[in-house]
Specification:
This protein is α+β, with helices and mostly antiparallel strands and 158 residues long. It has two domains: 35 residues; 117 residues, 2,3-Dihydroxybiphenyl 1,2-Dioxygenase, domain 1, CATH 3.10.180.10. The protein is 31% helix and 30% strand. It has three helices and eight strands, in the order H-E-H-E-E-E-E-H-E-E-E.
Length: 158
């Protein structure tokens, strides 16, 4: 019994130490001078039944914010959390960032242009699946995959 208590106490102490180290590391990383302003974040879900998905997410407190069933997509919000439901428009699910927008799809004054984000990522040697034209301004997008194959879309609408 004493061994179990000692083991539990060791675990709690180790968790506290690791949390402290993690918090220090996170602060160090966040306060670094290399922050990209990616814009509002959402998850774009590929759904097979848009009505069933809409009802499910409404039961979790989400409300339709944009889109229509007849257009095969809905953007839903629960406070500042955003999900996109897309009926068979793409394979898999996509992590989406929208530079220049806030969570209400309103333009923000200060943001990193999609082409600048693209330039920074390429400068770090990150492979892009496709690229935004550097000869344009305004709306553009590009896509990349993280090391586990998760699709990431940087999609600027302004």
């Amino acid at each position: 019994m004493i061994f179990v208590v000692q083991l539990i106490m060791f675990g709690v102490t180790t968790l506290r130490e690791n949390k402290s180290k993690f918090n220090a590391l996170s602060h160090k990383q966040i306060s670094g001078g290399n922050n990209m302003k990616l814009g509002v974040f959402s998850v774009s879900l590929n759904v097979s039944d848009l009505n069933a998905s809409k009802e499910f997410y409404e039961n979790l407190g989400f409300k339709v914010f944009h889109g229509e069933i007849k257009l095969d997509f809905l953007i839903m919000k629960n406070e500042n959390t955003i999900i996109g439901l897309f009926h068979n428009m793409f394979e898999g699910n996509i992590l989406t960032f929208n530079p220049g927008w806030n969570e209400n799809a309103a333009k923000i004054e200060s943001f990193d242009d999609v082409r600048e984000i693209q330039r920074q990522l390429k400068g770090k040697g990150i492979k892009l699946e496709n690229e935004a034209s550097v000869d344009t301004s305004g709306p553009a997008s590009f896509m990349l995959f993280d090391p586990d194959g998760n699709a990431i879309l940087i999609d600027q609408h302004v």
